[in-house]
Design goal:
Chain lengths: 388, 351
Amino acid sequence: MRLEYTERQQRFREEVRQWLEQNAPKQPLQSFDTEEGFAEHRAWEAKLAAGRWSAVTWPKEVGGRGCDLIEWLIFEEEYWRAGTPLRVNQNGIFLLAPTLMEYGTEAQKQRFLPRMATGEDVWAQGWSEPGAGSDMAAIRSKAVRKGDHYVISGQKTWSTRAVWADWLFGLFRTDPESSRHHGLTFILMPLNLPGITIRPVKQLNGQTGFAEIFFDEVKVPVENRLADEGAGWQVAMATAGFERGLMLRSPGRFQQTAKQLVELYQRHREKADADPSVRDAVLRSYMDAEAYTLATYRTASRLAKGGQIGAEASTNKIFWSELDLLMHETAMRILGARAELMPHAPAAGDVGHWLDGFLFAQAGPIYAGTNEIQRNIIAERMLGLPRS
Amino acid sequence: MDFTFEEQQVAFRDAVRKFLMVEAAPELLREIWETESGRSRELRAKLADQGLTALSVPEEFGGIGLGDLDWVLINQELGYYAIPDSLSDTAYLAAWLLNRLSSDVSLKKKWLPKIASGAARIAVGHPVNPFVADAQLADLLLLWRDDEVHAVPREQVKLGFNPSIEMSRRLYQVEWTPSDATRVAPARIGKDLWEGVLNRAALAVSAQQLGLAQRMLDLGIDHAAQRKQFGKPIGSFQAVKHHLADVAVKIEFAKPVVFRAAQSLATGAPGVSVQVSHAKLAAGDAAWSSARQSMQVHGAMGYTWEADLQMFMKRAWALDAAWGDRAFHKTRVAQHILAEGAALGPGETFN
């Protein structure tokens, strides 16, 4: 065990910090769930890519730096520390890309990864359907093979940022006789194909974060298939592993929020201490953010020695989503009667982004597989309890 | 940056685990509970044969010369098997403290080899605890007085026994009189030494709590897999699964906190006190939660003397306030994060 950074790692941190100081936007961008904000975030992705910072773990040939996971964690820590914009292409870079690298052909990697790195192609995810949420194996949208094409019909929903995204990755049923997790295939397609209709869905914050996607005999070339026909479930599970596991939520995000929560508490301490449970929640927030960081470094070290991410990915997802809720609930309690105010309200004071974060935290225990599903996975695969 | 144990450390832990699995079955624990001393000479001798009493003693005094990181793995096992013995008080805390009393070589020469061989028991009294564990069996007591360290033979102390619901805990109030003859370190040296003892003791308890949490979870899993209702194992019901999954999450995220604090103790890294307190809080929370959920999953069986769960639950409940209760450790964490100019946030974890 050695819990110190090497000189090389320290130099890397310095390099990231300097670049972000010189290049990160000085003013916060508009929300990427608005059309203008989406464009601003896409431009930021291009700037990141120009400095070769958009996908540091990727090989150099496709736009990355070949960083290991510890360097990735260092990059992410600096990224969150600098208060830099959210990643509009996170579904592509953090979820699809690791899957492409594992299952994609060389041609697919060359075709998709460089344009993903620059933000020229922003990716949306097409998994959930009206009848397939937690029960993802109930997918009904079908892809019928006709010569060198699939013809796709059906409907996807809750597709994050699909209103303005360029490409979609998703699961479709290629074998009409199949049921459950058999006969599914992982397919990639541009969202401007004829036959695709995208209907924005307004989220509870009033912005258009999601979309429903309707497919009416959409023709997609066979070379857009990832891995074998019928292997979609296995490929999707790998993506889900990355999503719940390391990549979707790096610890820097929660450490930054915990730090801001401590600062908020310090500013309002006199009033906040009238409810003694607030101090306890602040301490707990700090400790849990540290624990999440330590657990991630531990996992990264294990992976570096040839280990695999298993069901502990599900423990991560529960832990960070509950931590995020705890921190934002605590901030709302500290802000008291002003917590409900929109940031531009005249008396908003230092309400800042807390309300926005509080709303988004409500979604944490639901997206990327509900926490109930994660608990089932932990119970069955980690603890060996019998299936329901 | 490498957050994994060395193969050797894991191999030693595995050997100890195998040994305890055979030598410390719940039936034996119950037998030892019923004895007057609550301790077994045979078990202690076997622990010594495994090298556990010699772990922290330097090689020049007949020991193995290992440290905090090795102990954190061993203490997990001592917790998992709820060993009825204050082994780590003698072999970890007292050995560490005696070895740092640099002025008094005769004291080291007298006691360290006896610790290593398993011939001596040494109790440690710190003001954070109102009681001294196993004082009655101790050959020597190392006691705090205004930050001084005193070494007092048992014949010179008066003991008052306080029975605990956890029958393997033997707790004593100790009356004694400090003198120049008992003082082995003055306050200016003793202050840091006692801080070192407190941190190691709290970490030892944290690691034991992790082991206990895992044991109670395992007992809950076994019960849920075997017990049938409505024609199915109760472990197939989601309500039961989710209780146990929540415990697994708490254990998973307490572990790295405990391991990290051990590494900081071993390397003398700054900020170790707040890390130890975090470890104690996280592991205590995991253990109490595991007790609560495993009890629930056990149903009425969990409320019986017969089911083994009670032995581990009582230990977990008792250890929560040993070597600093939650208020004590939360205060240490609060002092760190609420201090002016505290270094918090991304990138500060390992600084």
